[in-house]
C-alpha cells in the first residue's frame, strides 16, 4: 500500500530557543532568532545551517519557526523556510497566511534558495528579511542554491513582498563558516 501521509518534525530543543510569548518588533530581532535557530541546529546536530521564523508584523508575535531537516527527515523539501511556512499554515489553518488581511514576515538566516523563493510567493508572505546572501552560502558551505530570476527582488516586490537583506549578515555568515569548517553533523 502506498503511504497516505507524511510526517515532518522539528527537533525538541526548538522551545528552548524560540519564545512564543515574546514580541519581536525589529528586523534585527526577527532575523536574530532565525540565525540563532540555525546556530543551534548546527551545534545540536539537527540538520543544516539554516533557520527561519514567521511573525505577525503588526503584533510582533511569533507564528512559527523552522530549521533545516533535509537529511534527518529524508526529505528534500524540508528546508527551514519550507518547514516554517508549512507549520505557520497549519497553525493558522490557511494556505495563504495573509488572506485574513494580516501582515506576515518571513525572517531567514540566509537568502532562500529557488525552492523556498517560490514557496514564499504562494504562501502569503508580505515581507522577507534575510541574513546571509546566496553567495555567502555558496562560498562558505558550497551548497548550490539553484537558479533565481536575475531580478528576483524585483519579482517579489511586484508581488507586494518587501525584501530587506544583509540584516546581521556577519552573524549569519559566522554560522555558515562554522558549519563549513566542521562538515555536516546530522
Automatic annotation (TrEMBL):
Enzyme class: hydrolase
Enzyme Commission number(s) from the entry: 3.5.4.33
SUPFAM superfamilies reported for this sequence: Cytidine deaminase-like
Gene3D superfamilies: Cytidine Deaminase, domain 2 (3.40.140.10)
Keywords on record: Hydrolase
GO terms, molecular function: tRNA-specific adenosine-34 deaminase activity
Domain CMP/dCMP-type deaminase span(s) in chain numbering: 25-156
Name this protein carries in UniProt: Nucleoside deaminase
The keyword Hydrolase belongs to this UniProt entry's keyword annotation: yes
Amino acid at each position: 500500500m502506498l503511504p497516505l501521509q507524511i510526517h515532518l518534525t522539528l527537533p525538541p530543543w526548538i522551545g528552548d530557543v524560540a519564545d512564543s510569548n515574546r514580541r519581536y518588533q525589529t528586523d534585527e530581532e526577527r532575523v536574530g532568532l532565525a540565525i540563532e535557530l540555525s546556530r543551534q541546529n548546527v551545534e545540536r546536530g539537527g540538520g543544516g545551517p539554516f533557520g527561519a521564523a514567521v511573525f505577525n508584523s503588526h503584533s510582533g508575535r511569533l507564528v512559527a519557526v523552522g530549521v533545516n531537516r533535509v537529511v534527518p527527515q529524508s526529505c528534500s523539501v524540508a528546508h527551514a523556510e519550507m518547514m516554517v511556512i508549512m507549520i505557520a499554515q497549519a497553525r493558522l489553518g490557511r494556505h495563504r497566511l495573509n488572506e485574513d488581511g494580516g501582515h506576515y514576515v518571513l525572517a531567514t538566516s540566509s537568502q532562500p534558495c529557488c525552492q523556498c523563493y517560490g514557496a514564499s510567493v504562494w504562501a502569503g508572505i508580505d515581507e522577507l528579511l534575510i541574513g546571509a546572501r546566496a553567495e555567502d552560502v555558496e562560498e562558505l558551505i558550497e551548497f548550490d542554491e539553484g537558479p533565481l530570476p536575475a531580478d528576483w527582488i524585483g519579482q517579489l516586490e511586484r508581488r507586494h513582498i518587501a525584501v530587506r537583506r544583509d540584516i546581521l549578515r556577519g552573524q549569519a555568515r559566522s554560522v555558515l563558516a562554522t558549519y563549513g569548517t566542521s562538515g555536516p553533523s546530522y
